[in-house]
Design brief:
Elements lengths: L1 E6 L3 E3 H7 L9 H7 L3 E2 L2 E2 L6 E3 L3 E4 L3 E7 L1
Parallel strand pairs: 1-7
Antiparallel strand pairs: 2-5, 3-4, 3-6, 6-7
């Protein structure tokens, strides 16, 4: 199942998205999480916590879940 994560801005950084999607508890965990886990953005591996995500982007984290960025 793919979970929709609503954003209220034009874009969101990957690190902020992980917190909003409740994958991590704090924004400070983003760097560690991205270095320890495989994260796919639109099917491509990405470890940049500053990567800008926009509505329609898909984030897949094997073993954790799949997410779609949606605008409100």
């Amino acid at each position: 199942m793919v979970k929709k994560v609503m954003i209220e801005t034009e874009h969101i950084a990957l690190g902020q998205f992980l917190k909003l999607a409740e994958v991590i508890q704090t924004g400070g965990m983003a760097k560690w999480f991205l270095s320890e886990h495989e994260v796919l953005v639109n099917g491509e591996p990405d470890q940049r916590r500053g990567r800008k995500l926009r509505a329609g982007d898909r984030v897949d984290i094997p073993g954790t879940g799949s997410f779609i960025v949606a605008d409100s």
